[in-house]
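Handout, section 4.2: multi-component inputs.
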Amino acid sequence: MCGLGMMASDVTMRMMRPRTAWGGRTGCRSVCALAATFAVACAFAAAQQPSSESTKVPDRATWVRLDCMTSGCHAKLAVQQFVHAPVSQGACDSCHEAADEAKHTFELVGEGAESCFECHEDLGDALEESDTYLSRHFPVAEGDCLSCHDPHASKLAGLLSSSYRERRYGRFDEDQFELCFQCHDAELVTEPETDETTKFRNGEVNLHHLHTGADGKGRNCKTCHTPHMSRQARLVREGVMFKKWKMPLQYLPTKTGGYCGPACHSARSYDRIQAVSREKPARPPK
Ligand code: HEC
Ligand code: HEC
Ligand code: HEC
Ligand code: HEC
Ligand code: HEC
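Output:
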């Protein structure tokens, strides 16, 4: 398509690694669209004009050199604060290839996350290291990147498709974490006491509610969780940043609760069946 006039070598970022088979796409917002062929509505302005010598579609030799962005058709794709590097460089063909040149239709070069892993190799490789990563987020393992990222550009940092509060502290508001609540039930946070909406509870005291401060000064989700995968269980991150200092965060799940090593506070345990006293010093489970 756009990149037809561009040699593969022009796409400097693209790694010429063979594509891995990555078929899964069953996340909440399914990425079936990834596999679908789609027609690009705009085509070339010229193609929509009545055919005459001056306005008809230029022959291939001419139009393959047109740039999809500067020709005006798809310029709006990049009118956002954060633009994906291959898009800003016009490397559309790293993800799209022509299905029918005459009809100006395109299909995606890979299914699911295949095309993403061409460049984001580290992430693709890490996902295959099942021994290193104790937890892998379901949509990530399924290659459903688009439920959280826009492939072209976004008004949100990290090319995120919906809100995910950056500020570490703040009053909890469901709208600030739409990214997560499109799949998870916000009740995992909002119920102060529960025996079902979350496993992160001590007896019936909801520790998500407590930490995210549904009532006041709360932490954001990423204080504790990574979005893709973690060497620890439950996507708990390995460390918490405080200014430039990374405090290790040791998390160990048990059958009925969990243990959090000293980090933000002294070591603590929680148990869903036998609530643990807050006064009691906690030891790592054996
Ligand atoms: C990183 C991969 C990637 C790159 C690079 C990329 N696209 Fe896309 N594009 C996608 C994916 C994935 C979809 C399907 C989106 C969906 O299903 O929500 C898509 C959809 C589209 C669509 C149809 C739907 C829409 O969002 O409007 C158009 C038009 C399009 N791309 C044009 C372009 C152009 C022009 C470029 C180059 C400037 C480009 N794309 C670069 C991945 C990419
Ligand atoms: C042709 C190469 C290429 C492809 C294909 C590609 N990316 Fe990227 N992506 C990049 C580069 C280069 C960066 C910038 C990296 C950096 O700054 O360290 C980037 C950055 C990102 C970022 C971080 C943006 C930010 O502002 O922090 C996200 C998220 C991302 N890509 C997601 C994806 C997803 C999802 C796909 C598949 C739909 C994909 N990428 C496919 C090259 C690519
Ligand atoms: C559940 C939502 C979610 C899914 C699904 C997801 N990401 Fe992300 N991704 C994020 C968030 C949130 C960040 C920002 C990291 C942060 O702020 O800690 C991020 C950051 C990134 C970055 C920037 C570098 C980094 O690792 O921080 C890249 C690249 C990226 N994602 C690629 C992908 C690819 C490729 C997929 C699909 C295999 C994917 N993501 C699936 C939420 C997601
Ligand atoms: C596309 C849907 C989707 C999105 C978006 C999503 N999740 Fe998930 N997440 C799942 C599914 C499915 C599971 C596995 C089933 C379960 O345990 O509920 C899961 C599991 C989890 C787990 C438990 C992991 C484990 O190993 O036990 C955590 C923690 C989590 N998600 C956090 C988040 C956070 C934080 C966000 C927002 C950045 C988010 N999720 C966004 C679908 C999603
Ligand atoms: C103080 C750290 C912390 C914060 C902040 C936090 N979580 Fe969790 N979360 C955990 C722990 C620990 C677990 C594991 C509970 C268990 O299985 O015993 C968990 C589990 C989960 C699960 C799996 C289902 C469940 O509730 O048991 C999801 C989904 C999840 N968190 C999403 C979120 C979202 C979304 C946010 C932000 C609104 C968030 N978390 C904030 C520590 C945290």
